[in-house]
Design brief:
disordered C terminus, elongated, two-stranded antiparallel sheet
Length: 187
């Protein structure tokens, strides 16, 4: 009897992956740009956008985790060496942790700084801690370090995907791309 082995992620997982990727790229770019600006209405507006992006990423990652729990991902490519499968699994776990921790550290930083996060300028989110300068300094440092950790992890993730696409030519990138789903028959 032949069983079907799904080679690709489903449409919802693909859409969430690329939407979160776009938001992460936007948030990291905006965050690195805005920090050195002089205080101005533009800088305050950029900070608000940065926070909205972060909270949106946090919400979408929660949705993605819920989706992942209820929808099994395709199995690893059995042609990949075990060390590559383990490295990919570690990178994915690191990405998920960072996608939770980075927005939460930013929210904590904002709370400790005495600036309540208002999602899209409308929905006030509760402060996670009270105003505290020492905590604000700590959470700022943590947020910046987590941002750099995310940059490095995303860079490694992209490098791995490009290696598989252009060097190994094993269609790994196609598993997380839009388009028609293909099935492979195995015995």
């Amino acid at each position: 009897m032949r069983e079907h082995l799904t080679l690709r992620y489903g449409g919802v997982a693909v859409a969430l992956h690329w939407l979160i990727a776009l938001l992460i790229f936007s948030g990291l770019t905006l965050g690195s740009y805005m920090v050195d600006l002089k205080m101005s209405p533009d800088k305050l507006r950029f900070y608000s956008w940065h926070k909205w992006i972060g909270i949106t990423v946090l919400l979408l990652v929660c949705l993605r985790v819920a989706w992942r729990v209820t929808h099994a991902p395709p199995p690893p490519n059995p042609q990949h060496p075990l060390w590559q499968q383990r490295l990919a699994a570690s990178a994915h776990l690191s990405l998920y942790l960072l996608m939770f921790m980075l927005p939460l550290s930013g929210w904590l930083f904002s709370s400790a700084s005495g600036f309540q996060v208002k999602y899209f300028g409308v929905v006030p989110l509760p402060d996670l801690v009270g105003k505290n300068k020492e905590l604000a300094d700590l959470f700022k440092t943590v947020h910046e370090l987590l941002g750099w950790a995310l940059v490095l992890t995303v860079g490694a993730h992209i490098a791995g995907a490009l290696k598989h696409q252009f060097i190994d030519k094993d269609r790994t990138l196609g598993r997380m791309w839009f388009g028609r789903r293909k099935e492979q028959h195995s015995s």
